[in-house]
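Quick start: what a row looks like.
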Amino acid sequence: MLNSLFITPIIAQAYTGYKPTWVMWVFVLLSLLTFICGFFTPIWESNWKNIKGEYDENNMRRLFMFNRQPYVLVVYTAVSIIVSAAIGAFILFLVGGVGYLLLWLVKLVLWPIIIIGWVCLVVGVIAVLLKNKIGGLPAILGGFIVYFQDTLSRWGNVCVEAGFNFFNTLNLWEYCKYLFTEHLMKLVIVAASLIGFGVAAAILALICASVFMLIENIMTRKYNIKHPCPFCHNPSEPAIYLSENVDLPVKLRPSVYGLLKIKHPVTGENMPTMLLNGRDNLVRRCPNCNQTISYKTGIEKHIAFVGLPESGKTCLTYRFVGNMMRIYNSIEFTDRVSSEAKKIILDIKAGKVQDLASKTSVSDIRRSLQFLAPGNMRLPYHFFINDIGGELFTNSGVDANYMQFFKDVDSVSFLIDPYTMDFSEYEISGKFAKWYKANILDKKQEGHVEKFSNVLQTVKAVSDQFVHNTKDIHANIILVKADMGYIDKETLMDEEKLKDLVISQMGMAAEIMDLENTYASLHFYAVSALKDEGVNKLITGIMNELNVKL
């Protein structure tokens, strides 16, 4: 740039005014010194020091192209070149003007000398005529000056002419006009190109960030990744990501702070911004319940078991997960699992005889087990198995905080336990009534029964609140404690006969019709969780309806 502005024009043929080479080099030197001085100004120093950007209130700084400092420096440099050339030319102009003025002063000084010479001559002659002894000296001096007055006058004119020529030599007005007219646009183009490059880079970065987030959004939709918190089941994204247990103060996603990675302001860790490059390997915290989350992302499948209190949901849940671990072997838990649950499930996996799992406590009204299972897809499957305390289906109100999982549920299974159901509202068959009386009423267990309609009403109320389209959800009727004699052996493995049992013998035709009209599908199973009967068939059925390919 300096060569284009200063060196090239010295030999350029387009400039017709002659200037000695020494003048050009002095001009270049003065302009260069002035330009260098610009590097020591506060504007340059502050912007150069923060050329990568200033730290914000979070002690973070944006990418290079999103900071003003580079653009300020480009404009400052371009303006400095123009100002430096103008200052160099002005200095030479000033020196030429001062030289011209000094030489003019020489001519002005010579005129008084000539006048003084005439005065000395006249006074000296008069003094000599009056016979004054000292009159000869002024007469001689004055005569000498008068004799050479023409020469002195020419010297004055020569000085003025030399001063004028010197001034013209250093007067770079026309040359500067040539520089600015011929090369200013080049400088503007260069500066504008650099600024344009930065702006283009910023726009490209924003486009890339948008594309990256779009790709991730498409991927999460394709694989049903909804990022629910495993504790409160509210959406956990955008989560609060941690590095060495220190919060990242901004959202971890492609942004002005980084496209693929964002540097943590405290720990210095480069944290990936997308699922595709490892964001799910990071520890994060749910913004709703503040619980720490560490699970890896997978194709989410949300399964829920609902039923009346003491209907065996927890026992079935553990059996369901334990058998899956036994069948597929490579299943691994995510996040925290209670020691009790883990022991029971691992014992089930190992084939050990199991005691009944503890009843869901009030403080743990919703149990949720999460685990990963590798499949034939690009990502592993991430299962959420929700066990909702039956107390929620007997109280007058529904606490939506415990029902957040319905936002994402893919399969909901209604457990029917004759030992906990009040059949007074149903027209049951004689055969079932005989068994019911012998096994429940005569044993005075009626105090433990509740109306199953409470379960259906509660699920419907929650669905109306959280679910956009129940036709996306698969439903199952699970007859539990199938080993207690209310189901014939030939009926246990026959879905149509199980359906007929529920409709004809238990008198739930209206409820079944409503469920069939509400959900994408409705299937019937009979299980005995304690004796591990029918559980594997249930697992296979749910995996098939959810299109899981393990």
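That is the whole record. Residues 69-129 form the longest helix (61 residues). The chain has three domains: 2-191, 240-285, 295-545.
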